[in-house]
Amino acid sequence: MPMELLVTLLLALPIAGFGLTALVGRRLGTRAWVIAVPAIVVTWAIAMVVVWTAFSGGLGEGGLHFTLYEWVPAGAFTIEANFAVDNLAAVLLIVVTTVGMLVHVYSIGYMAHDPGRWRFFAYLNLFMFSMLLLVLAGNFMLLFAAWELVGLCSYLLIGFWYPRPSAAIAAKKAFLVNRVGDVGFALGIFAVWTTVGTLNFTDAFERLSDGLAGGRIEAWAITGIALLLFCGAVGKSAQFPLHVWLPDAMEGPTPVSALIHAATMVNAGVYFVARANPLFSLSPEAMFVVAAIGIFTAILAASIALTQNDIKRVLAYSTLSQLGYMFASLGVGAYVAAIFHMTAQGFTKGLLFLGSGSVIHGVHEEQDMNRMGGLWRRMPITHATMLVGSLSMAGIPPLAAFFSKDEILGEAFRNGFLWVWLVGILVAALTAFYMFRLMGKTFYGPSRVDPAVEPHVRESPRSMTVPLILLAIPAALLGLILGLPFGAGLIGQWLGPIFAGAEENLGRHPEAVQVLGVDGVLILVSVAVATAGLAVAIRLFGFHWPLRGDDTEAQPERVAALTARAPRLYRASFRKWWFDELNDLLFVRVGGRVAHFIWWFDRAIVDGTVNGIGDLAQSAGRDLRRIQTGRVQNYALGIALALIVMAGGFLIVTAR
Amino acid sequence: MTLPQTVPFLGWSWNDLLFLALAAALLGTALMVVLGRNIIRSGLWMIACFATLAGIYALLGTPLVAAAQVLVYIGAISVLILFAIMLTQTKGGPAALVFHHQAWAAAIAAVVLGVLLALVVSSTEWPLAGEYAATSVKAIAQLLFSDYILPFEIVGVLLLAAVIGGVFLAKRDAPRDEPHGERPE
Amino acid sequence: MSQSLDSYLALSALLFAVGTFGFLARRNAIAMLMSIELMLNAVNLTIVAFGAFVPALQPDASVIALVVMAVAAAEATVGLAIVIAIYRNRRTPLVDEYAQMRE
């Protein structure tokens, strides 16, 4: 089977699934998933074939590039529907299709009682199509189309329970904030077009770097283009200051949160910056901005996650924080580490979200952690898998996220970005802390569940737990598989060539990782920090030791005391640093005033002028009409006056 | 007794005195015409004006024109006007308002016009303007019946037309006599 | 002064001005017609004055003056007839009430 056909099928199957489900889904009732889920399973299988071919070198140097058809045949501005499948895309394919497939299966159980489930599966398939299109796109235009489509699907899925006002508002917020970033993105695309005249990725990047080297393109132009395009990534991946939509996006069903807002859509920004590495690596200023925004978002989000009570919100802020890590990594030039972390985080966060969905399902739609507790007995599988996920997230070896996080911090330190490393270490500590705060409040200690619900709390059905187990495997082992030995693991081998050009631009020379040198110390430091955070959390929130079988009691009084000692900090964290209020003030209120003023201006001045001209014509006519009195003597007076004026004028003129 | 060469006290010539007197009379009567309240009085002042004008024509050495002025204007036109006045009298005497609202503008316009005209004609060098000379009636008569015979006849026809038109316009719509009896009025 | 053309012309201009004022300012139609007669007479005076002082224009000037007089008579006739006809219809000789053609 030729590769082009397989890749095309990757796109065709989900969109066909969407179409069919949309047409006949309603009539299928409980079996609404029978079209969508198998479509994605087959897509996953095909993707695995493609990935295997890619990693075994079957796609050739630089990957597979082919054109499906001419999309916009407009003379000079001709855009083709062309696709690029290289190792980077392959890595994304793994994450997207695997997590996507598991989420589809999980949703069979999760949405079993929802009357709108046919819509859900249709939208999920549409989303898969959009995301795959984004990953496989070979030019800016196609990417942008996929970018917008993904945003649309996000809107549809966040607002899936649209009768609920908060959901509708959250969906709107997501779309609008995304749009803000997309404006910058679009401007960046325009800039690329006007600078190099092509929107094809490979051609554009080549011309840009040649242009800079040859002096035809200014350095500031390169930086400008990079920053504009980065705006889109900021919006899509919810970095500061466009991060406000992600926590509210938790209004959607949990599978949506798992798929879109943990594993795939939010990674689109990271994927794009990685794809555009030839461009970004040409501009140290742009890289600095990327790193700064990334690491700032990381610590901002981590600080908020410390105090949130909604289980999904903690995970949302955790996602934000990890995305920040990824951008910081891209900004310091550690591309491989960033993609590695994205992969690890994709599986881990997906696992955690699906797990939280299982918990929520188990306690009958309660999301406040203060009303959970002691669930480790009732929901063992969920508990075990989430424990794995939390350990991974906290960066405890030998689980997945430890490897990737550590590589990021190591690269930062080694390339001189000490401030990134320092903040990153702090964030690692906070991450461990809040993850185990979550675990403690949810699973351990006495049960604080609503007494009416308590007797009915039980483990979730197999359609939900099986995906959890399946996700726990890569969350645990991915690091070992791809990351060892340090710095020279499989992931490095796969992705190295893609980023070779960027490394050159940055003047980096890959060095071997010295476990017994600086790098070893760094690893120890990060592990120590993570363990410290974990220990504090266990002391404060409780834990159940699976092997010893006993518990560490939670100490709510200690927690309360700590909170009381820094009330303002607590409040700032709890209220998300008042960022939503700031946005409301700046844009909604001020914008409202400006709009009001413009409305007034339009009414009073513009309309006034136009109406005034009309009125002027009317009144002029009305007044001029009064000359026509019908009386001869008035007319004769007019004649006499005219005669005087003309004669007088003539005399004056001729007298000169 | 012959008149002295110049007017005593003033040293003007008699001609000049006569001219000034007639001029003053002319303008005075004309003003009385336009400013008079009672329209019949205006008509009578108009007659006086015409008479003065006849005098000026005589002063200019054209006695024929002076005579024609008296005959035509005073004898015919003025009478006509007086008749018309009497035929259009409104009940209750003359109207309260003699002048329009626009009388002031009219006055200013008229004054400016007059001054303008006077200045223009005074400052113009009229070619061939020589000494004053009287005209002989014989010469007028000869001209009238040789070179100007056509205009003469046409004017006659014009007058006829005017008469017929005037009669027609001004007559009452009287009931026609039908062959089969009179229509009641 | 009586020997200069200018004074007669100035006199004529002033008479014309008086006539114009009367024409523009009086409300009674017949008074307007009388003012017209004054204006015509002023013109006649101009013609005769030119005839007296410009020998080349004599005796044509007198003939023209006579013709003007005749035409004035004809015009007065018709004008007055019209005024009488209107008066019959409107019962008023005041021209500011003949405003049928106003806007």
- What is the multimeric organization of the chains shown? heterotrimer
Low-pLDDT residue spans of chain C: none
- Going by helix content, strand content and strand pairing, the class of chain B is mainly alpha
Number of strands of chain C: 0
User: Could you tell me which chain pair has the largest interface and how many residues each side has?
Assistant: B-C, 92 and 77 residues
How many helices of chain B? 6
What is the strand content of chain B?
under 5%
Question: N-to-C SSE series of chain C?
Answer: HHH
Per DSSP E runs of 2 or more residues, the count of β-strands of chain B stands at 0
Summarize the structure.
The complex is a heterotrimer of chains A (656), B (185) and C (103). Chain A is mainly alpha-helical and 656 residues long.
Structural write-up:
The complex is a heterotrimer of chains A (656), B (185) and C (103). Chain A is mainly alpha-helical and 656 residues long. Helix content of chain A is 74%, strand content 4%. Chain A has helices at residues 3-28, 33-55, 87-110, 117-136, 140-158, 165-196, 201-213, 219-236, 245-248, 254-263, 267-275, 277-280, 284-305, 311-331, 335-362, 375-378, 380-394, 400-414, 418-443, 462-483, 490-505, 518-541, 556-565, 567-574, 579-625, 632-655, and strands at 64-74, 77-85, 543-544, 551-552. In chain A, helix 3 (87-110) packs parallel to helix 15, helix 11 (267-275) runs parallel beside helix 14 and helix 18 crosses helix 22 (518-541). The mean pLDDT of chain A is 84. With 185 residues, chain B is mainly alpha-helical. Chain B has helices at 14-35, 39-59, 63-87, 103-123, 137-145, 149-170. The radius of gyration of chain C is 17 Å and the shape is elongated. Chain C has helices at residues 5-25, 29-53, 60-90. The longest helix of chain C has 31 residues, at 60-90. Chain C is mainly α. Chains in contact: A-B, A-C, B-C.
